[in-house]
Write a structure and sequence with these properties.
This protein is of the alpha/beta class and 416 residues long. The protein has helices at 23-32, 40-44, 62-73, 110-129, 145-160, 171-177, 197-210, 256-261, 336-343, 381-384, 399-413, and strands at residues 13-16, 51-58, 78-81, 98-99, 133-134, 138-142, 167-170, 185-189, 193-195, 214-217, 221-227, 230-235, 241-250, 263-264, 275-284, 293-296, 307-309, 315-317, 322-324, 355-365, 377-379, 389-393.
């Protein structure tokens, strides 16, 4: 488990959009006009008058950005506070950048429902906003008779989730699509794709700012107290400030459980324990001969070592699962030895020495290693009894795909 600190350092930085009418927004705009670093003295003045804003969102990852966009476009006054120096520096930028179809998640779960609806919304959004993406499709490949038998159950499960475009292919038909592939049979998922996640987050931020949202970076949440009129927020950094708000959205990703523990009035027994599941990725020195994503039949505990592509067509392999007790993004080159035999089941000609450490990401798990699956945990006032507080726990994959659907759900909880 992890007890993530709610501290930060460095000069606070404000990024702002068009001004609305409140004193707090005016001060933030004064401090950050033109997207420049804020004047620390002006910024610290916020603490002197207990300025009130409508909504404070903690976290500027893809979920926090999508929520900020949703609330701001609905006319709410929004300030996003982020302890890092920029948007999307943690989980949102350390993933496979896959637009998932919604195949594997438990039927009826938030993950299943939000992935399927979020996928459709995300493809529309990318097309409308010019976000680089590609509906490249995915093959789930069976390399043994036992795995071939599992393909139909995977297809049936996908259909139960509303994914009705899966196609069962013979080995020959699969190789007609991907000649370098080794398999006995495969499932084709036509609606799976890839996305430039950074470009997507920039677009979300632009939408939020255009609707009046403001962003404060290098600004960790230190403490929040529920009051009769909402919340009193204490934020840190080089120039600490205090704000009052009506709605507090905890979208802090890996730090969401720690943020919740810092909210006075939040029942501690309703805050899940956080666990860290590190996923390591390796890139390939040679260009992989595939135009689609290649996934093995899932194995107990994960989806297996799969091949994904970035927008430039470069292949990467992973993630694996490495349970850790502290945040560490270093990739051990020795882990490649576990990747080679797994990859060669579907790509037998992978050259020796072709794999190179690439990057890693950490999933914000809220279930221990012995539990195979989890669901998103989105808590509103009806769940914990704290008016105006929305907690977003365990938003791991397919969080990127589901982001717009999650934001709509938060909007519903906020009674927009």
């Amino acid at each position: 488990m992890i007890n993530a600190p709610l501290t930060g350092h460095g000069s606070p930085t404000i990024r702002d959009g068009p001004s609305t009418c409140s004193n707090a927004r005016d001060r933030l705009n004064d401090a950050g006009a033109g997207r420049q670093a804020c004047n620390a003295q002006k910024y610290s003045d916020l603490k002197d008058e207990m300025d009130r804003v409508d909504c404070v969102i903690v976290g500027a990852g893809v979920i926090g950005l999508a929520v900020a966009r949703r609330l701001a476009q609905a006319g709410r006054e929004v300030i996003v506070i982020e302890e890092a120096e920029a948007i999307g520096t943690v989980t949102s930028s350390r993933n496979s950048e896959v637009i998932h179809a919604g195949i594997y998640y438990r039927a009826g779960s938030l993950m299943a429902r939000m992935c399927v609806s979020g996928k459709r919304a995300l493809y529309r959004y990318c097309a409308e906003h010019g976000v680089p993406h590609k509906n490249c499709g995915k093959l789930i490949v069976a390399t043994t008779a036992a795995e071939t038998e599992k393909l139909q159950s995977i297809r049936s499960h996908a259909e139960a989730n509303g994914v009705d475009d899966m196609q069962l292919l013979s080995g020959e038909a699969a190789r007609a699509l991907e000649p370098a592939l080794n398999c006995d049979a495969a499932l084709l998922s036509p609606s799976t794709g890839i996305i430039d996640s950074h470009a997507y987050m920039l677009a979300l931020r632009g939408d939020a700012e255009a609707a009046g949202a403001a962003f404060a970076f290098h600004t960790p949440l230190l403490h929040a107290r529920a009051t009769a009129n909402g919340f009193e927020i204490e934020a840190g950094g080089a120039a600490p400030m205090t704000l009052a708000c009506d709605l507090l959205v905890n979208a802090a990703g890996l730090g969401a459980t720690a943020v919740a523990r810092g909210v006075e009035g939040m029942p501690i027994e309703l805050i899940p324990t956080a666990y860290l599941a590190k996923g390591n990725y390796f890139s390939c020195s040679a260009r992989a001969p595939f135009s689609r994503l290649i996934y093995p039949v899932p194995e107990p505990g994960g989806l297996g070592v799969h091949l994904t592509l970035d927008m430039a067509g470069q292949a990467r392999f992973g993630p694996d699962v490495e349970w850790i007790d502290h945040i560490d993004y270093a990739v051990d080159p020795a882990r490649a030895e576990r990747f080679y035999p797994a990859i060669r089941k579907y790509w037998p000609t992978l050259p020796d020495g072709a794999l190179m450490p690439s990057y890693s990401g950490i999933r914000p798990k809220i279930v221990p290693p012995a539990v195979a699956t989890q669901d998103f945990l989105i808590q509103g006032p009806a769940d914990h009894g704290v008016a105006g507080l929305i907690n977003l726990f365990g938003i791991e994959s397919p969080g990127l795909t589901s982001s717009l659907a999650v934001a709509d759900h938060v909007g519903d909880l906020a009674e927009l």
